[in-house]
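Long-time lurker. I teach an intro course on protein structure, and each term I like to show students one example going from raw sequence to a predicted 3D structure in token notation. This year I'd like something fresh instead of my usual example. Would anyone be willing to generate the tokens for the chain below so I can use it in lecture? Attribution to the forum is fine with me.
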Amino acid sequence: KKNRTMADKEDVTSGSSGVGAGGGKKDPPKTTAVAAAPSAAAVVASSYDDDLALAKRAQAIESLTIVFGFPIQVAEQAVDAVGLDVTTCYNHILDQNLAPDSGGAIYPIDTCPHLTEQHVQVQADNLATILGGRPQDAPCSHPASNNKSEGKSGGLKQDTTQLDESCPSTENWMCLECGVVRCSRYQNGHGLVHWNETNNSSNNKNNTNNDNIPVEDEGHCLGVSFSDLSVWCHLCGAYVKSPTILGSILKQLESLKFAQIIELQSSTD
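-- Reply from a regular --
Happy to contribute to a lecture. Here you go:
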């Protein structure tokens, strides 16, 4: 053993230095990559997001069922179809005839950008002439079946020879742009038809305002209900309010609607 040569020593030491007997390097041992486990903070954040989403969904369903009176199955179906916005769900339920409207609170917005002179052309002083009496007595004057297209003018009420006044008058609306009267979505939906047809009419292309400046084609998007004098914007999908723009119109409609009651009270005083 003492007489080993230097070559023998090099061979012995090479076995522990990663070099093979033939002088080549050995391949390093293979290792399997292990995915890092999510941190505790990530797990908590994910759980919080899930809980928040469930809470928002429950809140939307609760509003649709308790405030608006829709069945829970219908509320869940609407939320799954269009999302968590209650107004969007409400409109979806009515538009798809998933359930009748059972009433509920109305929350008008005051940020509607369509409350402009373009869309509110009806004048308070002309309402009695336009309606011909009490608002609640004005019939839905949608065009007869042989004249369904309304065009830009909206089929104004004076064209009585081609109108079909067969719809119930329990809940009619008046277009604030042209003064035409149409029934609500709860009846035959001619108010919605009126907006769609004025919005899609080829006659509405290249519209201009009073200053001859081109304006976006938006149709006759604003209507007032003769039932409760609320104002609806089809483009916003919401009830809207503006005392400055709508105040005189609503006050005059209220006066016309309750004129007989006011006269009766005055005569008995």
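Some talking points for your students: Residues 5-19, 146-162 have pLDDT under 50 and may be disordered. The longest strand covers residues 172-175.
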